[in-house]
Amino acid sequence: MKAMRKIFLISIGFGLIIAFQNCGQSGFGVATPPVDELLSLGLPQTEPLFPYAWHLSNRGQAVFSSTSAVAGNDLNLLTTWGSGNYGQGIKVQVSDDGVENTHEDLSGNFLSSGSRDYFLTVWAGGSAPPTDSDYHGTAVAGLIAAVGGNQKGSTGVAPQAKLLATNFMSDDVPKTTDIIADQAKGSVDIVNMSWGYPQTSYNAIEPTIEDQFKVGTQSGRDGKGVIYVKSSGNDRVTEIARGVDDYRLGFSVFDDFNNTPYTIIVGAYLATGIVTNYSSPGSNLWISSAGGYDGVKAPAMVTTDRKGCTLGYSNSELTGTSGTIGSGFQKGKNGNSGCNYTVQFNGTSSAAPTASGSIALLLSAYPKLTWRDVKYILAKTASEANLDFDYNDNYLYLLNKTTYLSQKSPTGYKWDDGWITNDAGFKYSNYYGFGKINVDKAIAFASTYNSIFTGPLVEVSQSVTGLSVSVPDNSSTGATATIDFSTDLTIEAIQITPDVTHANAGELAVELVSPRGLRSVVVPMNNSLDKVANIRSMRFLTNAFYQESSAGTWTMKIVDGKAGTAGTINGWRINVFGQAR
């Protein structure tokens, strides 16, 4: 969906760019506390805009768009709500551009204490959107925990969870190393991060935030670990920075912030239940959640917007369709008299908070779950979904066989496997991770679950150097290099760092093959590293081998997908996270 609007911020500390992971910014409204009596009866469903919330209860509604949802494709949470679980006792930090905490549908759940405003000398005491153009975090917050049962607007996935916020993504906040690392801090249960780096190049993670992720999972929540939820990105098809009208396949692993075992990376699906055409795929995905489309051609998400008819989605200067969508919904009609809500928010910026709200419900029911337990339960109970094209040829070629003829895979090469089943019985896809979140199923499973994580998470690395293995030009045969991994761990994540020289990394596919013969496509060929030389010092992560044994011979395979240049494998490194068997 290349019509999507991204807000780009220059990172002073990194010299890089951070982007909101949605197809357009978003915003909010005025204040009333939650009515616990109504919530205890399970009545968030009586909110006036609830009928538009297909992600909460999908009955095939169109939500003002020209096409309808497909009934049943939602988070499957109404049984959980019916039991009286609305996310009570859980605190979620919205790491974003600030939250309009005086909004009528947010103020009752907002906590100023613990929120951070980077315009203050001491980063504490609130997190208001600093400028009129900051409205993304307000929409994110509403999806997580807009107040339920107050007869205003819609409702969050976890309508009794508490919200904290940071405003680091505001244009006016400098992206220093300290401020970026601070996003992983806080006395909270869940941190929602609906942002990331554009996947038109490889962006290495800042070590200080990776260290903080590790600290948070080890010591947060009284040692049970903070849950870090992050958008995969919106670069499934992306215009590369080195060319005009030149499109390639973006991949979530090109944003190294997505390549740690400490985060839950979330992809987005439509109201039809199918993965969106913008959601960045990747072997580092964990789960998929509701993200929606543009609100015009297909349903987007209903959520809170900046207060009034001149800010957020109501401002037609920011989003050209906001004056007409829903016959003027965002300009004060059809039940939105104060212009405090939007039905146009979307992207993996939406998928992450709907996942965060779902996890809040899980933790509210079972607060003793560790971060590793949460990941396991989500993977174990996720719903499989349909894939939307033939994986014998790459997605670009199938989109337009004339324009992208030169990007067709080499004869005999299958560029992706769709759904695979690993040796531990987990089904996995680069487009959905382990599947779509299923809240009721996750909570039912947790009711009889005893933690399988009896030992600490350990990290073991092995590498091979000094190789000189030729990668044949434009050949499905490819070239391989192996590592005999001697430590037997139950795998929780694998990182690999190839050392491959080639004039154009965008022509290369990188695969990891397990000792049992299962293939994970870690980097697809014809990707957005086009015209970047070499794959060296680029770390990628795969979850495809979750819960398998690590012992045995692992194979890295490099395949060249376009004629003109051959390459060489110089070595590689494998880094396994898991529990000793």
What is the number of E strands? Answer: 25
Structural class: alpha+beta
Average of the residue pLDDT scores: 90
Give start-end ranges of low-pLDDT stretches.
1-16, 24-42
Under CATH, the topology of the largest domain can be stated as: Rossmann fold
Shape: globular
Task: List the quaternary state of the chains.
Answer: single chain
The CATH C-level class name of the largest domain: Alpha Beta
Q: DSSP helix count?
A: 9
User: Percent of residues in beta strands?
Assistant: 15-25%
Number of domains: 2
What would CATH call the homologous superfamily of the largest domain?
A: Peptidase S8/S53 domain
Reported for the largest beta sheet, the result is: 6 strands, parallel
Give, in spatial order, the strands making up the sheet with the most strands: 4-3-5-7-10-11
* Helix percent band: 10-25%
SSE order and pairing:
Blueprint lengths: L7 E4 L4 E5 L15 H5 L37 H5 L8 E5 L40 H10 L16 E5 L10 H5 L8 E4 L1 E2 L10 H13 L7 E5 L5 E3 L7 E3 L13 E7 L17 E4 L10 E4 L36 E5 L2 H18 L5 H11 L13 H5 L20 E2 L5 E2 L10 H8 L11 E7 L4 E3 L3 E11 L3 E13 L6 E6 L5 E5 L11 E2 L3 E3 L9 E9 L6 E14 L1
Parallel strand pairs: 3-4, 3-5, 5-7, 7-10, 10-11
Antiparallel strand pairs: 1-2, 2-6, 8-9, 12-13, 14-15, 16-25, 17-25, 18-24, 19-22, 19-23, 19-25, 20-21, 20-24
